[in-house]
From TrEMBL:
Assigned keywords, A-Z: ATP-binding, Motor protein, Nucleotide-binding
Any one biological process term the GO annotation gives: microtubule-based movement
Composition bias type Gly residues, residue spans: 682-692
Region (Disordered): 675-697, 713-732, 882-916
Signal peptide: none
Record's protein name: Kinesin-like protein
SMART domains named in the record: KISc
GO molecular function per UniProt: ATP binding; microtubule binding; microtubule motor activity
Amino acid sequence: MDHGAAEVLSTEPSEEHFCLSLRNGLILCNVLNKVNPGAIPKVVEIPIIDTEGAAQTAIQYFENMRNFLVAVARMKLLTFEVSDLEKGGSSGKVVDCILCLKGYYEWRQSGGAGVWKYGGTVRITSTSFPKGSPSSLIGSESADESLDESESSQFEELLEYLLLSNETYLTETNELDDFPMNSMVIDIVLRKAVKDLSSLLISHGNQLGVFLKNMLKGNCKPLLKHEFLQAISNYIEQRSGLVSNELSKFCICGNKGKDISYLTDKTSVLDVQQKQLEELKASFHLTKLEVQQAHLIWEQELKKIAHHTKDLEVASSSYHKVLEENRQLYNQVQDLKGAIRVYCRVKPFVHDQSDEQHSTVDYVGENGNIMIVNRQKQGKEARKMFTFNKVFGGNTNQEQIYLDTQPLIRSVLDGYNVCIFAYGQTGSGKTYTMSGPDMTTEDTWGVNYRALRDLFELTEARMDVIKYELNGLNVPDASLVSVKCTQDVLHLMRIGHRNRAVGSTALNERSSRSHSVVTVHIRGKEVVSGCSLKGCLHLVDLAGSERVDKSEAVGERLKEAQHINRSLSALGDVISALAQKSTHIPYRNSKLTQVLQDSLGGHAKTLMFVHINPEINAFGETISTLKFAERVASIELGAAKSNKETAQLREMKEEISNLKLMLEKKEAELQQLTSGNNNNTRGGGGGGGGISPVGMPRPRCIDDNKLPTFEVRSCSSGKQRRPRLPSKFTDKDYIPKMPLLAEERSQSPSATTIRRSISTDRDRGANMKMQYPMRASINRSLAVATENRRGRNGNQEQEEEQCKQMLNVVREGKINNPKNQVAVKINKLSCDTTFELEEAQKSELSSENENVQIHIPMKKLQRSSSRSHHHMEVRESLLITTGGRNENKPSNNNTSIPKLFRRSRSTPRGKFMLPP
Ligand SMILES: Nc1ncnc2c1ncn2[C@@H]1O[C@H](COP(=O)(O)OP(=O)(O)OP(=O)(O)O)[C@@H](O)[C@H]1O
């Protein structure tokens, strides 16, 4: 305590006494100077006591007090008013001021850092105020009631203080209970609030006035009462919204907001905000739910898609399987129909032709599709699609090519005739496919070598079951050579290749200038059952078709090209005729088509490799090649048939052959007897009633229990055996008509029970004679059995049946009408089954002896002089001739014709219809 003060004040003064003792300002000034040295430069210390003392004292007092209050105000500490020191004044303010000075002093003493307090009121830290002038919350009741500048700055400080305390106490220290709300602060805030509200009211009043005036301006009508009220309430709502927003800025007091709710309107900004917040929360929650839901749905969708993708994967893999199955089934159906299989092979680009943009092959599908594009055209017209059994792209190797061919090779050993031929423009890769580029490397072996290797491997594998015998034939030499292993055939093929003309053209350095045909005949006999089978494999590498202008062929090459093109065009004619199911197929127009006749028209399995060159300048040839291949693919030959013979059939054939031998023997005897008889006649021995013209005792009847004597004669013997082939077929390089000629050659003389005769139509009837009637010998099944023109190779069962019936005829001795010698020819006619029965001339051979001539089946090669009539006609004929007693009966005695046959009205004389 100040020294002066101690003198004046008692130790425990009353409040009033305390205030009175401070009236002269001396104590206060000294205290202030101590707290803040130099705050009051001049303190009036000694009071002057004289007459004028009262006045002087008053001046001193006044000066000290004024200096003190000014200094305190300058320091922005709590202050009071002079009147507060008077009796009845607010002594509390004076006390506050002194406590404030104390607090300030202590804060200074402690170094002036941090927060300082006085009288329980928190002071602002020094950071918020300029150094040296500590900030304070100064509220002076002495200040003017109207809000002057200092007050407004105080208010700003208060706000700052509120915000700061909000930050420091409410949010960080959470010392809410210590929040000092003394009367002074409340006073200041309330005063400010009142001031704000009043200014707000004034401005609202002004704005409302302007608003109403504006309303009236726009609408000259006087306002109705309810309109007026409505306008005011609208306006207030508007404003209250704005005000609550403004006030809400400094009502961030957490839970204490309730305590200072006086800052907000009754409508409670907080409530509004709370509502908004809740709404926001609700919408957030809703959105969250929606997002979660969307997430769930999305996940489900994702799962579904994954599932679906798996399904698709499975489906696509099974689709490929089904596609493959489909292809196989399709091929089987095609086989059943006997369609020629067509595989297309695209030659790869070689050397510098690697730019596939210049390829005419646009696309090669897995299911036999190939798209050819004309790069010079645009749009739909530029592309053309072809479909074959299979298409091999340029990168297919030899092994892959052979894989689909392999089953055909197996069928050869099952008794089928198989023909594999390569077709295509010159240089397109036919020889590459059939032979391969290098014979010495197995990897590059073509179809020929692989097929032969397989043939031998299979024959070896089946050795225990079937014994096979193989004969190789290289057509240009037309020599039939027995082969034991692949090497034998390779050797044979090498010879063939040496013989094959090869020359260089502008399109192919090593162009094959002739067709190459390798034929392998296979005969097998099943060890157990004794069944025999025979198959035949033709491997044909055709010479390439070429445009002579492009191949720049001249001289010999030109001639070759012309020959090649001619034979290929003959092949084209045959294909066209077959595709159109024409009755006449011009096989004989070239050697090539003759060789392939059985493969193209018989019950063979035929495969054509069509080759194309993808180069742009070969576009024309590619299209025509593919069109040709399409036509080939459309040909249906009928289901392939196996050449398998049962043991029974073979036995029957053997029996027939024995019978034939016997017949020949008898014939010889007869001739001898005839010549002897003639001599006898000439010698005067007339024929007695029971003696036949040939001098033999004529049996009156045939003993049922005893077989007649038979003589079997080959129809190709005697007069009828004439070469009917054009000179070119008699040439030594005549291409045998395979497999039939080969069969003939391979048959042993002792087994020539069935012979094919090459003859003309003129031979008809002359060599096929039968003593009539033969009621039981021919029935419809026989007729039908022999009906099939192409059935030479196939219908073994029917053939067997036929043999049986004939043997029956012979055994049962039903051929007993020697008088009527009738030749029966069974021809296949297109729509109805007609038997042509021709009355034969009385045979020189007919005698009282019963003679039987049997000749089944028979193939005739008919050729008229005109080239246009060249065609091969296959006839199944049956000729049975018996000698009989009634040779005097008219030969055309219809009464002797069995009821089985009746004459067809529409057919020429001698033709009979088989009744249904
Ligand atoms: N798939 C292929 N891969 C590689 N080269 C091939 C292929 N096809 C053909 N070639 C090559 O193309 C050229 C001509 O082939 P190739 O002699 O087989 O044709 P071609 O059709 O037989 O001809 P031509 O009819 O004139 O005899 C040869 O050099 C051959 O090696």
